Amino acid sequence: MSKLDAVLDHIDAHIDESLSRLEALVRFKSISTDPAYNDECRKAADWLAGELNGIGFTAEVRDTPGHPMVVAHDADQAEKTGPSVLFYGHYDVQPVDPVDLWNTDPFEPTIVERKGVKMMMGRGTSDDKGQLLTFVEACRAYKAVAGSLPLAVSFLFEGEEESGSPSLLPFLHANKDELSKDLALVCDTGMFDADTPSITTMLRGLVGEEIIITAADRDLHSGMYGGPAANPIRILSKILADLHDENGRVQIPDFYEGVQELTPEVKAQWDALPFDGKSFLGEVDLSIPAGETGYSVYEQINARPTCEFNGIMGGYTGDGFKTVIASKASAKVSCRLVGQQDPDKIRDNLRAFVEARVPADCTVTFEEHGAGPAHSLSPDFPPLAKGAQALKDEWNKDAILMGMGGSIPIVGEFKTILGMDSMLIGFALDEDNIHSPNEKYNLKSYHKGIRSWARVIASLADA
Ligand code: BES
Ligand code: ZN
Predict the structure, then answer these.
(1) 407 CB within 6 A, ligand 1
(2) What's the CA gap between 375 and 384, in Å, rounded?
(3) Can you give the pLDDT at residue 86?
């Protein structure tokens, strides 16, 4: 029996213990955005460091101005082949409200069976506690069976991903040498569907910006002042409307700089996917694609940049009616980025676009809400072939390279700060209800996820 087969058998034989450890991790109420749970975040970090120490890593909980990081390196000095890797995951979770919409206690992991599919219900089971443990459990099995890992493995777990990772950037700068490895591995993405293993080679970046326009020094009677008085809601709406043309193209200057078209191979692969834009929109009671013309719904989500308005405020929004000209209006805008789009440049150009359209006696101010470049990996990046082969061996189906509309801002920073590419392999499903009530992770995702990572580790080590 090969070493890998023995590792896979060990994983199967000990899956119940692996599940118990996931239950233990899910029980920590590590909601990063709410200070009431600071203690729970620290407990989750302590628990993770304890587990890693228990399987032969030198793990430390490192303080930051926010929630702590967990950093671990393999204590075993045996000769390694293949790339050195940094595995990244986040132990924090989203808030659970509205809690009355949950069918089980969000922090009491509960295994249920639905239509023959077993799953664990609970906040963070999928995003990202179950996913990050797939890699830990693969390392555990490897060490138990083979004595050592064939790759030099280090870990970085953070506790602020769900609240914008404010401590991560300074942490990466301060620990650059320690954390720079040949390759980052991340398990915080999903599969195309329940049977199709997937590597996310495109993940959109993000620029968050609030635009605040102020006109008169107070709210005014719209009969007395309407006409001559500049109306910030009108000014703001006009600017927002100008941000897209009739084809849905974003009008910020140089916005598309660094955006590449899909290669013919990837486009052909995507067109052949069993994804139907109509049913995708149908699920949320829509039918007409409203994005950039000339691109399929799948491309619009996964490979095109957007500029979306997430909130708009101003004037009288209470019950009834009030004839007022507000002194102030504001909008929360987020751009999702692809390719080599530069977040700082896009923010600057968005600000300039707005400033140029604000009348001389009005003012505009801006508030920054985070930024991160997109992640995009060439399909020729050598570790991808190894990862894809390992996934195919486990799932008996070709792995696809896919794009994903969401963002994991740190992945871009791994490249810019640590010079490290990331391979994103995840086992979550669209139906996992991440960020929503009744989050779950299928036991199959967990079990085959662990087995997949064991195979990926073996495949990367195979020179
Ligand atoms: N795990 C998600 C990213 C994700 C979303 C993966 C959908 C797979 C499918 C991640 O934790 C997340 O939610 N990121 C945020 C960004 C952040 C700055 C709040 C997002 O995409 O909005
Ligand atoms: Zn998330």
Answers:
(1) yes
(2) 14
(3) 98
318 CB-contact burial (10 Å; exposed 0-12 / middle 13-18 / buried 19+): exposed
Q: What percent of the chain has pLDDT over 70?
A: 100
Best CA proximity match to 402, nearest among 307, 295, 290, 267: 267
CB-CB contact of 426 with 405 (8 Å):
no
Q: How far is the CA of 174 from the centre of ligand 2 (A)?
A: 25
Token pair of 420, please?
A: 């490290």
- For ligand 1, whether the C-beta of 413 sits within 6 Å is no
Q: Which atom of ligand 1 is nearest to the CA of 406?
A: 21
In the block, which residue shows the tokens 């587990």? 51
- Round the average pLDDT of the chain to a whole number and report it: 95
Compute the distance between CA of residue 96 and CA of residue 70 in angstroms, rounded to an integer.
Answer: 24
Q: Among the CATH numbers 3.40.50.10140, 3.30.70.360, 3.90.1150.10, 3.20.20.80, which is that of 205-259+305-372?
A: 3.30.70.360
d(C-alpha 258, C-alpha 373), whole Å: 11
Domain boundaries 3-203+375-461, CATH class: alpha beta
Beta carbons of 236 and 331 less than 8 angstroms apart: yes
Alpha-carbon gap, residue 144 to 449, rounded angstroms = 18
User: In a mutational test of the pocket of ligand 1, which residue from 158, 161, 402 has the highest number of ligand atoms less than 8 Å from its CB?
Assistant: 161
Reported as a single tens digit per residue, the pLDDT across 286-296 is 999 999 999 99
pLDDT at 370: 81
Instruction: Please report where in the chains the tokens 């191979």 appear, as a residue.
Output: 265
Structure tokens at 59: 């793990």
Closest ligand relative to 204 C-alpha: 1
